[in-house]
Amino acid sequence: MPKPLALTSGEPAGIGPDIAIKAWLRRDELKLPAFYLLGDPNALGERAKKLGMSVRMAKVRPEEAVDAFAKALPVVATGHAATAPAGHPDDTSAGAAMACIRQAVSEVMAGRASAIVTNPIAKSVLYRAGFRHPGHTEYLAELASTPTHTPQPVMMLWSAALAVVPVTIHVSVRDALTQLSTDLIVTTSRIVVAGLKAHFGLARPRLAVCGLNPHAGEDGSIGTEEKTIVAPAVEILRAEGIEIRGPLPADTMFHEAARRNYDCAICMYHDQALIPIKTVAFEDAVNVTLGLPFIRTSPDHGTAFDIAGTGKANPSSLIAALRLAARMAAARPVPPI
């Protein structure tokens, strides 16, 4: 029997519960892979009532989820109560969200789930509770660490139209400039190439590397980082046989004709990567974490406190994340972009 996907509730006061319920209600129409929802069964039941949706929920163990999925939304309890009303996180929010993540990692590494799909968390809520990681991705890497190995996670945002990877992630622009290095670009790109080969059916992935400065530095007249940091990384990777171009001006890399020339854009900082993909594929882009010992995807949006519990949340990105996680877990190549 195939193993289910482990889906976290995310921030309990956000739209994670809403879109999880909406996705399950469309399971037959969309032929969705079986998943179970980690969280507080009581809170999830209350959210369904608030949404005015008739949802049968079944409290199960992970191994029971596939059998239950057709007739009830399988819920695996974490043992952490979530009392926050929709749109208003409270003192239970951080603990409930983190418990879902920890349990999902434990279950996928124990072989009880085929992959993890994580609903959005509110980092500001977690920070107030003492969370010390920049984001989801870094926390997953810590949970996946062993005494002898700490994985280096790479965040890829994927859609059928565009895939992007930021080399520096959840840091200020000032800190991104400090962190950026030739070694970091090289390591990140190697992980991307390995992931595209293993899970996306690309025998020879094509990378395009953004410059850091406007017009990729204009031959050093608007900055020298392209010459001193980015170009050396490209040369190292090209010498390893990787098909790679750059550094290229970021302002001309993302129009439709340019996107046909590469499979993934390697970007120097967060917004350089996320602005184009959220412009091109806001509703169906998927956050994929490469470099971990398990598959993890996530919707490419936030908690949307302003519409939580209203029924307005769109589950499209979560549905895309569920489908992509199942395809990657089954080692079936996704369609090339």
CATH class of the largest domain: Alpha Beta
* Percent of residues in β-strands: 15-25%
Spatial strand order of the main sheet: 3-4-2-1-5-12-11-6-7-10-8-9
Inertia-based shape: globular
Bin the helical content: 25-40%
Order of helices and strands: EHHEHEHEHEHHEEHHEHEHEHEEH
Averaged pLDDT: 93
CATH topology tier name of the largest domain? Isopropylmalate Dehydrogenase
Q: Main beta sheet, described?
A: 12 strands, mixed
Distance between the termini: 31 Å
Question: What is the total number of structural domains?
Answer: 2
What is the tally of beta strands?
12
Radius of gyration: 20 Å
CATH architecture of the largest domain: 3-Layer(aba) Sandwich
Q: What is the CATH superfamily of the largest domain?
A: Isopropylmalate Dehydrogenase
**Stretches with pLDDT under 50, minimum 5 residues:** 333-337
Oligomer: single chain
* Helical stretch tally: 13
